Amino acid sequence: MKIFLDTANINEIKEGLALGVVDGVTTNPSLAAKEKRPFRPLVEEICALVPGDVSLEVVATDLEGMVKEGEELAQIGPNVVIKCPLTKDGLKAVKYLTGKGHRVNQTLCFSATQALLSAKAGAYYISPFLGRLDDIGAIGMDLIRDITEIYRVQGFKTQVLAASIRNPLHVIDAAKAGAHVVTLPFSVLEQLMKHPLTDIGLKKFLDDWAKSGAKI
Ligand code: E4P
């Protein structure tokens, strides 16, 4: 399973890449707006930094606008994946842009039927939003399980990119369900590597070593 960072923050991306476990980046209009920088140079910098896929989202809501923005974004680099919302025009945009040789990440997926249509339209990634379903009392992970099963049984090539991840348990469950990718806020990536027993164990090793007076 690949790990993407869900951020448009350059420092977080640099730190994630330095860890050697980050395979790509997803952004969205909210994340980009949070950086308070002109959009184009920001995403150009991200695409140049990241060797793997970078999802950049359109903000138009009609087919013509999505296609125009998608084609502009795709010119930024070969690692750009165009992100389109899962609407009627978004599905048409997937079909069109995929037909032109682009890769599309279909975002804001909240049902298995949406995911089925997106795969039929040719999406490269489908992004079901786990956390936002949990927020309204639904079980987001059930959607990941349904989609991975449907895609496997039906032989779709679309990759399941588990999004709106809020905690380490989401990551474990998405991995068990067979998601191809999880996209994480930097804070969750940090949570994945931490364990209190590691810190306690390391302190004990170093204390014992210091007391012994030995040297490497
Ligand atoms: C997916 O690509 C989205 O950017 C993201 O995962 C949304 O997460 P949120 O629900 O925490 O905003």
List the helices and strands and how they pair.
Layout: E1 2-6, H1 10-19, E2 24-26, H2 29-34, H3 39-49, E3 54-57, H4 63-74, E4 80-85, H5 88-99, E5 104-109, H6 112-121, E6 125-128, H7 130-135, H8 140-154, E7 159-162, H9 168-177, E8 181-184, H10 186-193, H11 196-212
The structure holds erythose-4-phosphate (E4P).
Provide a descriptive summary of the structure in words.
The protein is α/β, with parallel strands linked by helices and 216 residues long. It has one domain (2-212): Aldolase class I (TIM Barrel), CATH 3.20.20.70. It has helices at residues 10-19, 29-34, 39-49, 63-74, 88-99, 112-121, 130-135, 140-154, 168-177, 186-193, 196-212, and strands at residues 2-6, 24-26, 54-57, 80-85, 104-109, 125-128, 159-162, 181-184. The chain has an eight-stranded parallel barrel with strand order 1-2-3-4-5-6-7-8, surrounded by eight helices. The protein is globular, with a radius of gyration of 19 Å. The model has no long low-confidence stretch (mean pLDDT 98). The structure holds erythose-4-phosphate. Erythose-4-phosphate is lined by residues 6, 26, 28, 107, 127, 129, 131-132, 163-164, 183.
CATH architecture: Alpha-Beta Barrel
Q: Give the helix tally.
A: 11
Q: Give the helix level as a range of percent.
A: 40-55%
CATH topology: TIM Barrel
Low-confidence runs: none
Question: What is the N-to-C succession of helices and strands?
Answer: EHEHHEHEHEHEHHEHEHH
What is the name of the CATH class? Answer: Alpha Beta
Kindly report the oligomeric state of this protein.
Answer: single chain
Instruction: Trace the largest sheet across and list its strands.
Output: 1-2-3-4-5-6-7-8
Tell me the count of domains: 1
| Share in β-strands | 15-25%
Ions and ligands: erythose-4-phosphate
Number of strands: 8
Under CATH, the homologous superfamily reads Aldolase class I
Tell me the radius of gyration.
19 Å
